[in-house]
Design a protein that fits this description.
There is one protein chain. By secondary structure, the chain is α+β, with helices and mostly antiparallel strands. The protein contains 5 helices and 11 strands, in the order ββααβββββαααββββ. It has a 5-stranded antiparallel beta sheet. Strands 1-2-6-5 form a 4-stranded antiparallel beta sheet, with helices on one face. Strands 3-4 form a two-stranded antiparallel ribbon. It is globular and about 50 Å long. The two termini are 30 Å apart.
Length: 205
């Protein structure tokens, strides 16, 4: 069973990353497809993400998932809060019965260096990229993933990544980044992991 990474965050919250090695028929035999996805690989990612929800919590009622106007999936009764992300051959999910959550998974690519000013403020670029003095594109990828996890945690749309999501205090030894989310004035802690060819970020509040 290709569980790439699994983490019990607390008694009520679990996180997992699934390496997709199965066929579409495998997932369709276990979970329904909630929306029409025409691209075969994106459809596989979609199904794998929903499969992972029930892998993390076997009683997860995936048949009740609704999609908000902001495209955020949710359960009407909020029995579980959850977030799904996928890229390449990986799907990630975080599920909690008590806390709002957000997760994002990314494959670092060098082209992110050309667009980092679109999601990082001048202050963030000065603080982080000058401080670490590295040409490695994994660091901007991490910041993008961190901000995506906040965006998904918030779930209501209308977020300016440069203005509303302010990152500071990256602690490599703890694998955390502090964040101030200006939309609702929340202080948050983003957790992350670096893997070979993969970056994972998540937030729980």
């Amino acid at each position: 069973m290709p569980v790439f990474f699994q983490h019990q965050i607390n008694e009520y919250t679990r996180l997992g990353v699934w390496k997709i090695e199965e066929t579409e028929d495998f997932f369709k035999g276990n979970v329904p497809q909630h929306r029409e996805v025409t691209h075969p690989h994106k459809r596989l990612q979609h199904l794998a993400g929903r499969f992972l929800l029930q892998y993390l919590f076997p009683d997860f009622p995936y048949k009740l998932i609704q999609i908000a106007d902001t495209r955020k999936p949710y359960l009407p009764d909020e029995r579980y809060h959850f977030s799904i992300s996928h890229c390449g051959d990986y799907a990630a999910a975080i599920v909690s019965s008590t806390n709002r959550v957000g997760v994002d998974v990314e494959e670092p690519v060098v082209k992110i260096l050309n667009i980092q000013n679109k999601f990082l403020s001048d202050k963030e670029r000065e603080q982080f990229l000058d401080e670490f003095k590295t040409p490695d594109f994994r660091l901007p990828t991490l910041f993008w993933s961190a901000k995506e996890s906040i965006f998904k945690w918030y779930g209501a749309g209308g977020v300016d990544f440069r203005q509303h999501i302010q990152l500071f205090n990256l602690q490599e030894e703890k694998q955390t980044i502090d964040c101030f989310f200006a939309k609702n004035e929340s202080d948050l802690v983003i957790h992350y992991r670096h893997f070979d060819g993969l970056v994972l970020a998540w937030v729980v509040s």
